[in-house]
Amino acid sequence: MFKKLLTKINDASSPETRSHFDSIFAQLEKKYLGKEDPWGLNLEKARKSLERLWPLYKHYFRVRCFGTKNIKDQPYIVVANHSGQIAIDGMLICSMFSTQVEPPRILRPMVERFFTGIPFIGSWAAEGGAVLGDRQNCINLLERGESVLVFPEGVKGIAKDSEDFYDMKKFGRGFFRIALATGIPILPIAVVGAEEFYPLVWHPLKLARKIGLPAMPLTPNLVPLPSPVDIHVGEEFVIPKNLSADAPDNELDEYINKIHHQIQTMLDHGLESRRDFVGNMITDKLTKKMNLKD
Question: For the chain, what are the domain ranges?
Fold first, then answer.
C-alpha cells in the first residue's frame, strides 16, 4: 500500500490536478480579496497543505463523498461525528469542501485550546483555516459568511475505546446556541471509516489527566491504517425561529437530540455500505454493530 501511495504522490503535480487546484484557488482568492483574516488563514500555505494531503485523501484513504448536493452556497455550522483518535477526520471533511463542493470554500474547523498551543502544528493549522473554538470566534466567522466545522462530542468523541466505535457520545449545547443566535442552518455529516485508522485502542484516562492531556490513545499501529473513508452529507437542519439562544437547556435538548439521531442514523446506514477492509473485521467484532460482509 505504501509503495503504491508513493507512486501516486506525483498526482498532486500532474497537469490535471494543477489545473483543478488553480481553478479552486482562483475562486478562493477572489472571495478573500482585500479581506484580512484575523485568525491567520493564508491561502498560499493552505494550498500547499492541501496539495500534500491530496494523495492521502484520494489514494490512501480513498475518500468517497455522498450527498454533496445538499450543500448550498451559504454559511453553515457543519456538525459531524468525531472519530479516528487524531484529527484526520476533520482534515478530510475540510478537503472535501475545498475540492468536491461548488463553489469551493475553506471550511473553518473549531479546534480545542490545547491543539492551538502545539508547536508548529498550531500555526500550521491556523494557516489552513483552523480557529480556536470559542463562541465569539465562531459567531464572528459566521457573520463574515464563513462555514465552520464543529464536533459536538468534543474530545470524548475522538477518544473512544474500540468497543465504543460508531456509538456517538452526547452532544454539547454550545453549537446549537450559536445557531440560534445567528440563524445559520446546521449541516449534519457522518464520517464512516475513520474509526478503523486505529482499530485496536485503549485510553488510560486517569494517566492522561495526570499529565494534562485530554486523551492518550494506546494502539499497536503508529501510522493510521489505509481504511477507506465515506463522508455522508445529510439534509440541513433548519433552526427554529421561535426559540431563544438563551432558552433553558431542556428546551434545546429536544432539537439537539434530533440532530444527534440524524447523524447516528447516517452512520448506521453508512456502515451497511462501507467498503471491505481488514480493520472492519476487528471493529465489527468488538462493537457488534453489524454482521461481516460475505
Answer: 62-287
